[in-house]
Design goal:
269 residues; alpha+beta
């Protein structure tokens, strides 16, 4: 597996980890990356790592009213699915990182920098993307591609072929989601999500294509038109298109458009 030079700091400096119910591991590919650290929700010695996962989640989502309570992390992530991510041993962590987690140089532990959470769905063919986050925005020197590689290697490790997820039309995570796969829009305007501009998408992954992303060897796809994430009337129209049986797919990565994003759409019946 070849990896672009710009992603090497993640591969060389950080360590991958998985946090899951131990009986799940037999269904995953734990050999995708070497030195995978495994955390077990039944192991009392891993309790403080659970607290650091909560700290990361609070730093990333607490201000958006989307932070997770402990029972949610256990019941809806670790037990049925898994948390995959990258982190670092505290001995190699900067003062900046230690401060974020209220740690000192005397603390000996593993610190998570990113997480991807996915949950198997009842149809037994799809997973649901519950969470993707990283602390890059908190770092003076961020790791380029940390969110991208966290999701990519999470997909590979959990052996996900089809994924359904929820995000917002103006969410910067779309740069990552669309890079890994076109997004088939299943529900352009979801009626029950906390954020009213949320939509539900489906991604289908090909391992060879994921490898080409690591090598930065991908090409742009054709599209029919562009829409703005801030154009609610157009998004409402997409909702009607889907109801009428059209397939609406977001292709290629978004383009920054003022306060929002410009997204490229491919239509088919």
């Amino acid at each position: 597996m070849n990896v672009s030079q710009k992603y090497l700091p993640i591969i060389n400096e950080l360590k991958p980890f998985i946090y899951t119910y131990s009986d799940n591991l037999k269904n995953y590919n734990t050999q995708v990356l070497s030195d995978l650290k495994i955390f077990d929700p039944f192991n009392h010695e891993h309790k403080n790592f659970f607290k650091r996962i909560r700290t990361l989640d609070g730093l990333c989502f607490g201000g958006a009213d989307m932070g997770m309570d402990p029972w949610v992390i256990l019941d809806c992530a670790i037990m049925p699915g898994a948390i995959f991510g990258f982190g670092i041993e505290s001995a190699r962590a900067s003062d900046e990182v230690l401060s974020l987690f209220s740690l000192t140089k005397e603390d000996v532990c593993f610190i998570p920098f990113s997480i991807f959470i996915a949950i198997p769905m009842g149809n037994k063919t799809h997973w649901f993307a519950h969470n993707l986050s990283s602390l890059n925005s908190r770092f003076t020197k961020p790791y380029k591609g940390l969110g991208l590689l966290t999701k990519l290697f999470g997909i590979k490790t959990l052996k996900i072929e089809k994924l359904i997820g929820a995000t917002q039309w103006n969410n910067s995570s779309l740069y990552i989601h669309t890079k890994l796969s076109p997004l088939k829009v299943l529900n352009p305007k979801n009626p029950v999500h906390t954020h009213s501009n949320s939509f539900i998408y489906e991604s289908v992954y090909d391992d060879n294509y994921l490898n080409s992303i690591l090598e930065e060897n991908t090409t742009l796809l054709d599209f029919d038109y562009e829409i703005s994430s801030e154009d609610d009337s157009k998004i409402s129209m997409l909702n009607e298109y889907v109801k009428d049986g059209k397939t609406i797919t977001i292709v290629n990565t978004p383009i920054r458009d003022g306060a929002g994003l410009k997204l490229q759409i491919k239509e088919s019946f």
